[in-house]
Structure formats: C-alpha cells, structure tokens
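All the exercises in this workshop are built on plain-text protein records. Instead of coordinates, the fold is spelled out as a row of discrete tokens. Once this layout is familiar, the rest of the handout is easier to follow. The record below serves as our worked example for the rest of this section.
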Amino acid sequence: MQGHTGWVLSVAFSPDGATLATGSNDNTARLWRASDGGFLRTLTGHMDCVYSVAFSPNGATLATGSYDNTARLWRASDGGLLRTLAGHTGVVVSVAFSPDGATLATGSGDNTARLWRASDGGLLRTLTGHTDWVRSVAFSPDGATLATGSQDKTARLWRVSDGGLLRTLTGHTGVVVSVAFSPDGATLATGSFDTTARLWRASDGGLLHTLTGHMDCVYSVAFSPDGATLATGSQDKTARLWRASDGGLLRTLTGHTNYVLSVAFSPDGATLATGSCDNTARLWR
C-alpha cells in the first residue's frame, strides 16, 4: 500500500480484519481495505508524526498517538474526529485499548503511561516510575494488567485498577521499544534495541526465551491470534516469524528496503501486515 509520503510507523487491523490502519511521519493516519489494499481515507489533524494506531475492540473507533503530544480518537467509518486527549508533556508514541474498549492507554516521552476513559477522554490515572520514554503499552487479555516498555531498558507490569506496580522485567541491554501479551495472557513478548526479542512469564516475570537472529534493533513484536507464532519487525529491514513455544525461527520475510517498524496479525491469523521506513505497508501470507 503506497501513498504515505513518510515512514509508516505503525499498522493495525480492525477487529473484523476488513481494514488496515497505518500511521506515518507525514502527520497522517490512513485506512485501507485489507482485501485488496485499496485506499479508503486519510485522517488529518495531528501536527506531527502519527507514531501509533489502534482500533477499539468493536472496530468503531481508531486511536492515534502523535509527536504533537496528543492522542486522538476518530470514527473509523468516516474518519471524523471524536476527541483529542491532551495532558502528556512529551510525545505520545504508543496507544492501546483495553479489551472492553472502555479505557485507552498511552505511552509517552514524558516517561509516563496514562489511562483515559475512551467515552469522554477523561484522565483516569498516570503511571510513573520509568526513568525514560515509555515506548510501548499493551493490555493483558483480561484487562487487569498493563505492560509498558521503556527506553530505560525495562518492561513493567501494572495493575490497571489502581495503577500499582506489579513487577519490573530486567535483562535487555537496550531500549525496550515494543511489548505484547500472548492471547492467553500467560506470556509477555518484548522487542529491544539490543537486537533481541524476549518471552517472559507474565505471572512472575521469569525469562522464558531470548530470540536471537535479527541483525539490528527489534522495533515491533506481535502474537498470532492462536498464540503459536510471534512476529518481529527489525531495523535490519526484515520481519521474522518465530515459534512462541520455544523461540525457534520459522521464516524471515524480506522485501522492504528500509527498517520494518511495525508488525500486526489479521484477526484470523492468515495475514501479517508490516509497516516500514520505505513509506509502504505490506501484507504477507
């Protein structure tokens, strides 16, 4: 899918798999038909890079996070702006909806994550403790836990109900730029500038596997819907697919001519989307 005039920083499928959203440093988000890559609409209004995109669980709303220090909520049906979430004092580099769609999490360059009411944009709580940018946020499948990945080289798990810190995951020797829960909530995946991805037990933070093979930063991690496969996107211009059970490499996807910054599975697990600094998004079997 070509059309962005800047890097494609983030990709996300709608819950029904019919639409792909992309965010770019051309300051826009775009919506595309997943079936044939056809362009649907452009969402304009952000004043800087759109670094992260996420659909609500019902598919009606798209959230975007931007370098203009705001997150925005849009109607997916027509691209209409619903509300702007302001309050972060740094860039918003990650957005994620809770499984029930009631809460939006944001991660920011102000070293915090925030939880907001999706219905009206009201701030619920601010999670503090990281000592550098919060680069990624992800809810557990039951909505009880929020994972954050940070430039302070750690990932953290927090109680959503009160913002209490549950545990800190240490071991990466570079920025933790991406976090993702497995569909059963038992495993957390992290991607790092240290060129590895790691799999951890969510219950106690124990390290399960370290996935090595990428030749540069691992920018994005995503589990397949059945939890059997982990996808990674890297600065080495490739995406890779790994067995989640033991970290074994399944295959390497080549073709992008620049960094692969984002990976996302379709809801049926049949398709992988990748977003790249070559200004394109690609869909793979």
Q: What stands out?
A: The chain has a mean pLDDT of 98. The domain at 1-111 is CATH 2.130.10.10 (Methylamine Dehydrogenase; Chain H).
